[in-house]
Specification:
The chain is an alpha+beta fold and 200 residues long. Helices cover 32% and strands 24% of the residues. The protein folds into 2 domains: 80 residues, Thrombin, subunit H, CATH 2.40.10.220; 75 residues, DnaJ domain (Helix Hairpins, Orthogonal Bundle). It has 5 helices and 6 strands; from the N terminus they run E-E-E-E-E-E-H-H-H-H-H.
Length: 200
């Protein structure tokens, strides 16, 4: 539930979607296009807003007597932020980090339909918010480049260290025999035991 505070009154609304620096709300009361409102409340299951200023871009009546409104966040820093410690944009969107822009857009449309709060069968507002925030990052080339750089830096490098300690210890005699066999193979000699002795 989101509280929409206007100059003279406050109304409650349900979050419909969040994307591109704005959000969509479902309300019982109309909002005046062009007005400025303050949003407070829960954006999904794990995100709470203290105070977010937004401009009402449009508001339209629905056939059931409710209203839908489109709001644009006023402060550029007020856009809904993905909790990056909790979610990986590529995991949220079920994509490879190598995905191209067309694939990102196609997958977003598919998942947005699946998780949209209006979808009665599979709607999930928290997942939809995470998906929208991830798409906002991955669909913008500059934001994606900076996200990828930070994402790579935060992931541990997965390399396999081949050290003496990682392999079973061998005796010096085994090491010497292996070395002699390698040298013998290199020189074309079969083995030390099979060489002819020229003792007189």
């Amino acid at each position: 539930m989101i509280h929409v505070e206007m100059e003279s009154r406050s109304v409650t609304a349900n979050l419909v979607d969040v994307i591109g620096g704005g959000c969509g709300l479902a309300l019982l009361n109309a909002l005046k296009p062009g007005s400025t409102v303050t949003l407070r409340g829960k954006f999904g299951e794990n995100h709470t807003l203290e105070c977010l200023k937004a401009g009402v871009k449009w508001c339209s009546a629905q056939s059931d007597g409710t209203f839908r409104a489109g709001l644009e966040f006023i402060d550029q820093d007020s856009t809904f932020k993905l909790d990056e410690e909790r979610a990986d944009c590529y995991e949220v969107m079920q994509l490879s980090p190598n995905a191209d822009a067309e694939t990102i857009s196609r997958v977003y449309r598919l998942l947005a339909f699946r998780y949209h709060p209006d979808n009665k069968e599979s709607g999930n507002s928290d997942m939809f918010l995470r998906l929208s925030a991830s798409y906002k990052i991955l669909s913008d080339p500059k934001k994606r480049a900076s996200y990828d750089a930070a994402h790579r830096a935060s992931k541990p490098v997965r390399t396999k260290a081949f050290t003496e300690a990682a392999t079973p210890a061998r005796s010096d005699r085994e090491k010497r025999r292996n070395h002699e066999n390698v040298m013998a193979a290199y020189l074309g000699v079969r083995s030390r035991e099979s060489t002819v002795s020229w003792e007189g």
